Amino acid sequence: MIWGGVVTLIILAFLPVPLFTTNLSFMFYMMLWLTMATSFNFVAGMAGYMPFGYVAFYGIGAYATGVLYKTFGLPIPIALAGAAAAGVAIGLLLAPTLRLKGVYFGIVSLALAMAMKLIISLMPAKITGGSLGLILSGANDPTMAYYAMFIVLLGALAAGTWLSMSRLGIALRAIRDDREAAEVVGVNVVRTRLKAWVMATMFPSLVGGVEAWYTNAIDLESSFNLLVTAKSIVYAMAGGLGFLVGPIVGASALYGIDQLIWRHFPTLNLLILGVVIIALMLLLPRGIVGAFAQRFSRFRRFIP
Amino acid sequence: MNELLLQGLVNGIVVGLIYALIGVSLNVIFGVLRVVNFAHGEFIVLGAYGAYFAQQLLGLSPLLAMPLVFLVFGLIGYGLYFLLVQRLSRSNDPEHASLLVMFGLSLVLGALMLLAFEADSRSLNFSLEPPFLMFGNVILPTTKLLGLGVSVVITGCLAYFLYRTMPGKALRAIIMNRDAIQIVGVDLNHLSALTFGLGLGLAGITGIIVSMIFPSFSPFIGQDYTLIGFIVIVLGGLGHPIGAVAGGILFGLAEQTAMVFFSGTVAMLLGFVLLIAVILIRPAGLFGVQNLR
Amino acid sequence: MLKVDQLVKTFGGMTALAGISLTVPDRSILGVLGMNGSGKTTMLNCINGIYEATAGEISLDGVSLIGKAPHAVFSEGVGRTFQVPRIFPQMSLLENLAVALLNKGLSNAQVAEISAHWLNKVELYRLRHNYAEELSGGQQKLLELARIMVANPKLVLLDEPFAGVNPSLALLLIGIIREMPQEVGCSVMLVSHDLTSVYELSDNILVMHEGHVLAEGNAEAIQKNPDVIEAYLGA
Amino acid sequence: AEKIRIGMTVSSSGNFALASQSGVRGVEIWVDEINKQGGLEFGGEKRLVELVKRDDRSDKQMVARVYEDLIVNEDVDILLAPFGSTLTAAAATVTERLGKFMVIWSAASDALYDQGFKNIVSATQMPVSRMPSAGLEAAHALGGKKVAIVNVDEPFPAGLADGAEAIAEKLGMEVVLKEDYPKGTKDFSLLLQKARAAGADVFFPTSYEGDLISMVRQMRQMNVNFPFSFMVYASTPQFIEIGDDAQYIYSHTNFHPTINWEVNAGLDRAGFISAYETMFPNVSYEPDFQTVLAYGAAVIAGEIIEKADSFEADKLKQAALDLSDNLTVLAGPYAVDETGKQLKMPFPVVQLQPEKGLVTVWPEEVAVAKPVYPIPAWDQRN
Amino acid sequence: MDGVELSMENISVAYNGDITVLQGVALRAQPGEVTGIIGPNGAGKSTVLKTIFGLLTTRTGAIHMGGRDITGLKAFQRALEGIAFVPQNRSVFPGLSVYDNLLLGCWPFRKDKARITRAIAATFDKFPVLKERSASPASALSGGQQRFLEIARALVTDPKVILLDEPTAMIAPKISKDIYALTRSLADQGATIILVDQNVRQCAAISDRLHILELGRNKAEGTKEDFATDGQLKEMVAEWMNYRIDV
Ligand SMILES: Nc1ncnc2c1ncn2[C@@H]1O[C@H](COP(=O)(O)OP(=O)(O)OP(=O)(O)O)[C@@H](O)[C@H]1O
Ligand SMILES: Nc1ncnc2c1ncn2[C@@H]1O[C@H](COP(=O)(O)OP(=O)(O)OP(=O)(O)O)[C@@H](O)[C@H]1O
Ligand SMILES: [Mg+2]
Ligand SMILES: [Mg+2]
Questions:
Q1: ipTM score here?
Q2: Count: domains in chain E
Q3: Domains of chain C, first to last
Q4: Quick check: E66 contacting C, CB < 8 Å?
Q5: Mean pLDDT for each 10-residue chunk of chain D (382 residues)?
Q6: What is the edge-to-edge ordering of all strands in the sheet holding D102-104?
Q7: Which of E11, E18, E19 has the most ligand 1 atoms within 8 A of CB, as the residue to mutate?
C-alpha cells in the first residue's frame, strides 16, 4: 500500500513535466538514476551481488542503440529494443560468472566492463564511430526520449514490485541470507540468480540507449564511465539495499544533493559529494530506509 | 621478433612485480581487513606527490623519502581507521559499506589533490646511474630493477609477518571471527588500525616506486592503480601476499607478451580475458582458499 | 527406502567415510550415534548432495542420488537440518517456509494453509510475521524442522536436533519426530548425541566410528555392546 | 544596459580539467578586456559582457544538462563550447535544438563538422586531420623516411594519429608502425622498442602530456632514441618542466615568443601576456596554447556579435562567415567554411634546444633557429 | 590458578537499542566453585555470559571481579584480566590451523615463548585429538572437534574465571563426561567457573550453586544444599527436568 503510494507519487511527479518546461534534463536524469538504482537493487539488494561492472550494460545499450540507428538506419524504438536484447544477450553470455562469490564476482564483472569497452574500441570505426563515438543528431527529440525514460522507469518499478512479491523474490532473498541452506531446501541457486541477472541487465541497457537518444552523443569514455556504476551503488545503498523504496529514497535524496552542490560549489562539488557519501555511510550505514527499519524494528515488515 | 619476445617476457615479470606491489598493499587492507579500499590508488598517487614535494622542498631523494612517507601514511592510516572504518562494523554488510565510504574518500582525495597540486601531470626528477643494464640483448632499466627489489623485499617481509608471527596470525584471524579475536584477548581496534596504517604506509611507498617506474602522475590516475590492485589480488587470491605476486606477474606477463604481437588495446583485452578465465577455473584465485568465512 | 552402499568420502588424504552401508526402510527412524568426527555430518552431506561422494552408491526408492545437486535431492524428497540451525534470518517465518514450497506448484492459499499447519505444530504460529533472526536458538531449530516438513519429504535427515534446546522444546520436538513416520509417512535419519532420545525414538540404531559402521541394532543391544561402550558411551 | 551573457562550461575534474581550465583563463582575459573598454557594441549601445561558467566534470551527461540549464534557466545569449570534441558534440546537440549559437575553441574532430550542425563555428581550432602536417613536413624535409605513430585510444589523439598517417603517406614517407593503446597504460617500454625494431626514424606519438612524459623518461631508461621525435604536447610548460629528458623533442604550438601574427582583433602577444600576468598573478603556469585558442575564440565571438548585432543563431552564423579571412587574432588567421570548420590557424613547429630553450624551427618563414637533426643519442648528450 | 570472585548486580541489557533482554539480573560466582545457570531458550543465559565478558554494553548495573569494578573494560581487556569465554556459537578461526588457534589463545602472554610451548604441549596432552590434527585448518574439524578446540583454547591461558556456554552440546557422551570432570577439577583447583547448560541434570550435578533465569530475570538461586533441602527450589528443578522424559 505504501509502495502503491510511492509509485503513484513518482508517476504524478514525472508524467507532466514536459508540459511545463523545456528544461527536461533535471527530471530526465532523476528518472535515469531512479531506474539504475532500482534495477541495481535487483541483483545487489535481492540477490546479494555487487556487480562493479554494471556500467557495461549501460554502455552496451548506448552503443547498440547508436549503431542500430546510425549505422544500420533502424528507427529508434527498434534500436532500443535491440539495445535491451543486446544487454540481455551479453548478460546471458556472462552467466558463468554467477557462480563466483562476493567480491570476486564484483571484480570480474568490472573486468568485463573494461573488456567490453576495449572490444567496442577495437571494432571498425565505420560501425562504432571510432574513438569519437557516434553523434545521433538526426534523432534529436528530447520529449520523446523523456517519455521513453519514463516508460523504462515504470518498467523497472513494475519489475521490482513483481520481484518482491513473487516466488522468485523469495528465492532470491533466501539465497542472499544463506545460499547453502536455500539450496538444501530446493532452490536452484544458479537458475534463480540467472533470472534476476537477466532482469537486472535489461534495464541499464535500455537506460543507456534512451540516454544516448536524449543527448545524441555516444562515446566510449562516458558510456563506460565507472561513475555510472558507482552512482548506482551509492544511490541504492544510501537508500537501503533490499527494500523496494530504498533506491527510490536514496536516488532522489542524493541526486538532489548532488545537483545542489553542483550548482552552488562549482569547483568543490566532487569534494563535497565525497564528504556527503562518507558522512551518510558513517551515520546511516544501512542506508536511510535501513536505518529506519532498524530503529523501529516493529515497523520493519511494513516497509516495502 | 624473438629478441622482442624475450624483452617482452622480462618486461612482463618486471611490470608484473610492480603490479604485485600495488596489489600487496591493497591486500593488507582489502584481503586482510576486508575494507574495500576504493581510494587505494589515490593514496598511491599521494605517495608519489609525497616524494615529489620531499624532493622539491626538502631536497630528499625519493629513496630517502620512503621511510618518511611510510611513517606519515602509517599514522594517517591509523587515524583514518578510527575515523572511517571502525564504525562500519555496525552495518549489515560492512564490506560493501566500506566500498562506499572508500569511494567517497577517493572522490575527496582526488578533489583535494586537484586543489592542492592542480591538474598537471608531474614527474619525479630522479634517475639512477647507469640508467639501464644490459643482459645479453635484454635491457633492464635500473629503476625497474630497484622497484623489483623493493617489491620482493616488501612481499617477503609481509608474508613472513602474516604467516609466521603471532600478530600476523591474529590479523588474519580478524575476518574469520570478530568476536573470537576478542575472546583470546586481542585489541581488535588497535590491531585493525595498525593494519590499516601498515596498508597505507605500503601504499605510500608503492606510490614512490611506481612513480619512479611509470614516470608521470596526476591527481586523476588513482583509479587506474585501484583497478590494477584489485585485479591482481583477485587473480592471486585474497589476503595472500605471495598470491598477489603470482597474480601480478601473471597479469604483467600476459599483457606485455601480448603487446609484442598486438596493439596495447588488444593486450589489455587479453589481460582481462585471462583474469576472467583464471577466476572461472579457480574461483578463489590462484592462491585462494575457499570458504574461509 | 534409503539405501546407502559402500559410501566413501575422502578429503585430500583424510578419509572421513570408509565404506558405509545402511538402509532406512520406509516409515522408520534410524538413529545414528558416533564419536565426534566419526563422519555423521559428512554422511548427511553426501546424501543430500552438499558433498560429492568419493565412491559408493546412494539411492532413494531406487532413484540414485549420486551426482545430484542439493536442490535436486530436495526435489527427490530428501530434507535435512543442520547441526547449527541455518534459517533465513532476514525473512519472516512464513517466508522461510515459503522457500521450501517454491517449486511445488501450489496456490498461495495452499501455501498459507500448509505453513499455518506446521507453524502451529512447532508452536511458532503467533510469531509468523517476525523475522527469523528474532527467534531463540531452540526456536530456530524448530523453524528449520518445519521448513523441511512443509514440503512433505520422503526422508528427513536431522543433524543434532536437540543440541542446546531446552527441555520443554525438546519434548515438543521429540513428539513431532515420533509422529513423523506415521502421520507424514516419511522416514527419518536422526543424528544425535542425546542418547535418551535416540534410544527412545529409533527403530534401529547405527553407531559409527572413524568412518566405519561399528555396530547396528536396537537400543538395548547397542547399550550392551562392549565395542560401543568402549568407543562411544564410556564406562 | 543589460549585460551580454555568455555561457560555457569548465571541467573542474576529469580528463579535460587541465586543458579546460587553461582555456577558460583566456576567455576571462577577454571578458575583462572588453569590459574595461565599456563592453561590446550592440544594438547601438555599449553592453558589458558577463561570463556564466559552470562545471562539467569532463562528463558528457553533465554537459548536456548544463548547456540546457544555461540556455533555459540562465538565459545566456551565446555560448562558448566546452573543451574537446566529445563534450562539444554533446553541447552542440543542445544548442542546436534550442536554437543558440556556439563558438568552438577546441573541438578538432572532423566528424563533428560533418553532422550538419548549423549554429556552430570553430573560431580557432583547426581540424585534427590537418594538425600534424607541419610536424611531418618538417620531418620529411629533414630527411625522415619511416614513421612510427602511436596514440592513446581517445578521440583527439586517435584523430591526430589517423591524420598523421594520411599526411605521412601523402608526403611519401613509410608508416612502419601505427598502434593505439588504451587509456591507463603505464608502461611504454615495449611500445618504444617495437617502434625501434620497426626501424622508425620519425617517432610521432599523439597522446596527452602524462603519457608523453612517461614515454620520454622511458626512452632514456630503455636507451631508445629517434632522429626525430615529435610530441604534440611537448611545448607545454608542464612538459618542459620535467628537465633534461625533454631536450630536443619537437612539438608545435601557436603561442610562443617568436610567433607574432599581424593581429587585427584583440590583444597581441605582448598585450596578452601582460593582461594574463595582471589577472592571474598566482597561477603557477604561464598561458599555453589552450589559453590562446580560447582567448582567440572569445575575441572572434565578440567580433561576430558586434557584426551580427543580434543573438539569433542564423544571423550570428552569417556574421561568422562574413568575417572569414578578414580576422587575425593572437592564435593566427581566421577562416571558416559553411560547416563551421576552421581552415587556417596553422601551428609552427618548435624544438626544445639546450641553452636556447624552446625555439621555432619550422616553417622557415617564422623559424628563428636551425632544427637539431638528428636528435643526439642519449649517451652523446652531456 | 587462583580464581577470584565475580559478581554482577542489577544488570540490564538491550539489543538494537529497544529490545530489552536482561532486567536487573544479579549473580555471584565464587572461586573454587562451579556456578550453574539454567533456564529456557531465550531466557538470556548467553546474554549474561556475553555481558560478563564485555561483548555487550550494559544499561544499568556493575560487574566486579575480585572486588574491582570491570564494567568499563572492553572485552579484550577482560580476557587479559583472566576471563576465558567459550561462547555458544562457533568461535574457532576456521582458516587457521588447530595449532595456530591454540597459539592465538596464548595472546595474553605472547612474549613468553617458553610458556607458550609449555601451555600448548599441556593442552595437547589433555586433548589428543587436537594433537593429531594440529596442522589441519579448524574448518576441517567436525562440529564436536571444533568444540574441543574452543574449550582447549580457552583453557590454555590458565584463566581465573571461565565462562562456558553449553560446552557439551553436540559432544559425544563419553567426552562430555570428560569435559564435566575437567570442569569440576578446574573448579577444585580454584578457578571460578560459570556454566550455562541445557543439560540440567549434569549441570545441577556438578554445580555448587545454581541460578535459574527466566525472561531475562533472576527466578531463583541457591547452593547445591539449598536445592537439595529447600522444597520449593527442589520442586522447581524437578518440574523443569521433568519436561524431559529422562535426561
Ligand atoms: N543479536 C540479537 N539481536 C536481537 N535479539 C537477540 C540477539 N541475540 C539474542 N537476542 C534475544 O535475546 C534473548 C536472550 O537471548 P540469549 O541468547 O541470551 O538466550 P539463551 O538463554 O542463551 O537461550 P538459548 O538457550 O536458546 O541459548 C532472546 O529472546 C533472543 O531472541
Ligand atoms: N571439509 C572438510 N575437510 C577436511 N576434513 C573434513 C571436512 N569435513 C569433515 N572433515 C573431517 O571428517 C571427519 C568427519 O567429520 P563429521 O563432521 O562428519 O563428523 P561428525 O560425526 O558429524 O562429528 P560431530 O559429532 O562432532 O559433529 C572429521 O575428522 C572431520 O575433521
Ligand atoms: Mg556433525
Ligand atoms: Mg544461549
A1: 0.83
A2: 1
A3: 2-85+154-233 (3.40.50.300)
A4: no
A5: 91 80 94 94 93 86 86 93 90 90 91 88 91 92 95 86 94 94 89 93 93 92 94 87 90 83 89 93 80 95 95 94 93 91 88 91 83 92 77
A6: D49-55, D4-10, D78-80, D102-104, D120-122
A7: E19
